[in-house]
Design brief:
Strand order of the largest sheet: 1-2-3
Number of domains: 2
Order of helices and strands: HHHHHHHHHHHEHEEHEHEEH
Distance between the termini: 60 Å
Number of helices: 15
Structural class: mainly alpha
Helix content: 40-55%
Largest sheet: 3 strands, mixed
Shape: elongated
Oligomer: single chain
Length: 374
């Protein structure tokens, strides 16, 4: 029997190795250091405040061990559905109640421990507050049934008090470091103030597509479906940019550009746009440099006012800029055109949404063998 090539062996070993050691949590070292510092402060403040509230004093912080696991989720992966306030608080308190109930009902500690953890998972799942440290809370309640954990008050003090304080510290910490917690999936703003998703999201997988894919995947993923949809849309955009990265703005830009001087009145811009059937005009200053862009929606001002006073900041690119970089801005709905300038900010060309659509239609036709309709 022939031996497997060395490259195949390395690939098999790499896959086997990666199954045990996943990618590191957090996008970078700085975020991991932030998470560690947040956990340090969170546990210290929670323990000390609980100690003061219950009369133990600063020298005797009151903490339950599962708070360490909750801190990992709250500070290291705050976007996780398992780390949101209701799963954290509800999961810990409910698991404590379940553990105490099972400990009182089942005399055998081993059987009680197993039942408590299983029941806690089931009830947390039903109440949509699944929180992994909840299993440890339920187990702690069973193992400590002969002490303070034997009372139902254990679910409120220290478990509930610990958890609530830890959540409050996490909210404050993430506000300070610039994170959003409780986590809300980011939404691309609709440029026209409507409730429709942004164009890039409408072009990508729908919410139902994501839900069906997750159901067919057969595994529970620790990610919000809205976050997943946004990630997929961003990945598709990056793939499109990579596929079109060999085409520069120079190759598709219009060169005979109609423009207007900043000193001209709005009435002149309106007449020029109507005469040439244009949606936008580059605005040039007295030295011939690009000052801004004016669109059809900007023409409602006083007709005697100067164009330069109402022109908007344009999207500027250079002739050698890859067209791929315009896919995001021009497909978001916020921009309708990009102005091509030289090193002195002088007008060289214009690329509109129509130019971009035409390019992608031709590329699509080339790849599929279809002929784009005229």
């Amino acid at each position: 029997m022939s031996e497997a090539p060395k490259d195949d062996v390395r690939l098999i070993w790499s896959r086997y190795y990666s199954a045990f050691i996943p990618a590191p949590a957090g996008p970078g070292l700085l975020d991991r250091l932030k998470a560690a510092s947040g956990a340090i402060g969170g546990i210290a403040i929670t323990g000390l405040l609980c100690g003061l509230m219950l009369g133990n004093g600063l020298a005797h912080p009151l903490l339950v061990a599962p708070m360490g696991a909750s801190a990992v989720l709250l500070f290291a992966v705050p976007a996780s559905p398992l780390a949101q306030p209701w799963p954290v608080l509800g999961g810990n308190v409910i698991s404590a109640l379940v553990g105490i109930f099972v400990a009182k009902a089942v005399p055998d500690p081993t059987v009680a421990a197993a039942l408590a953890v299983g029941a806690a998972i089931a009830i947390m799942s039903l109440l949509r507050c699944l929180h992994p440290p909840g299993g440890a809370v339920a187990l702690s309640a069973v193992l400590g049934a002969k002490g303070v954990a034997g009372s139902y008050m254990f679910a409120l003090v220290p478990v509930g008090a610990n958890t609530l304080l830890l959540i409050l510290v996490a909210i404050l910490f993430h506000r300070i470091v610039g994170h959003t917690y409780p986590h809300v999936a980011p939404k691309s703003p609709a440029p026209h103030g409507t409730t429709d998703p942004a164009p890039l999201l409408r072009a990508g997988p729908s919410d139902q597509d994501i839900a069906d894919a997750l159901n067919d995947f057969g595994e529970t993923l620790d990610v919000d479906s809205h976050d997943l949809r946004a990630l997929l849309a961003d990945a598709e955009l990056r793939a499109a940019q990579r596929n079109h990265g060999n085409i520069s703005c120079r190759e598709i830009m219009s060169r005979d550009i109609v423009y207007i001087a900043a000193s001209q009145p709005i009435a002149a811009a309106r007449a020029l746009m109507q005469d040439r059937d244009l949606l936008s005009l580059p605005v040039l200053d007295d030295a011939g440099r690009v000052q801004g862009m004016i669109g059809a929606l900007d023409l409602g001002h006083d007709a005697a006012a100067c164009v330069g006073d109402i022109s908007r900041r344009p999207l500027l690119v250079h002739a050698d800029t890859p067209v791929a970089r315009l896919i995001g801005p021009l497909s978001s709905g916020a921009r309708r055109a990009a102005i091509v300038v030289d090193a002195d900010q002088r007008l060289q060309g214009l690329i509109t949404q129509t130019d971009l659509i035409a390019l992608m239609a031709v590329r699509f036709a080339t790849q599929t063998g279809l002929t784009p309709s005229s």
